[in-house]
């Protein structure tokens, strides 16, 4: 059984942006939970929107490529969140480790 850690928008943005104040913490979390990420299509849609500028589009493309290389990573389809999250919640290793407070950072 795989233990998943939920990856939210703040995590992905910090991971893909070196100047982000939480970039170092995101890298530590990635190393610790490299293969066992759980996220949703909604989260990835938010990340795509945040990185939609021509100067940052490759960051999103690289992020998606890295996510696809992780065999144990799970992306829950939009519209199925409640049912699949309930079923996956028991497999999560810990409560959410990433704070949504990072959404309010400046520089975006």
- C-alpha termini separation: 37 Å
Let me know the average pLDDT: 77
Assess the beta-strand content as a share of residues: 5-15%
Number of helices: 5
Radius of gyration: 13 Å
Structural class of the secondary elements?
mainly alpha
The overall strand count is: 3
Describe the structure concisely.
By secondary structure, the chain is mainly α. It has helices at 9-16, 23-32, 41-50, 57-68, 81-89, and strands spanning 5-6, 37-40, 74-76.
Structure description:
By secondary structure, this protein is mainly alpha-helical. It has one domain (5-96). Helices cover 45% and strands 8% of the residues. A three-stranded parallel β-sheet has the order 1-2-3. Helix 1 packs across helix 2 and helix 1 (9-16) packs across helix 3.
Topology:
Layout lengths: L4 E2 L2 H8 L6 H10 L4 E4 H10 L6 H12 L5 E3 L4 H9 L19
Helix pairs in contact: 1-2, 1-3
Q: Could you name the key traits of this structure?
A:
108 residues; mainly alpha; three-stranded parallel β-sheet; 5 helices; 8% strand; globular; disordered C terminus
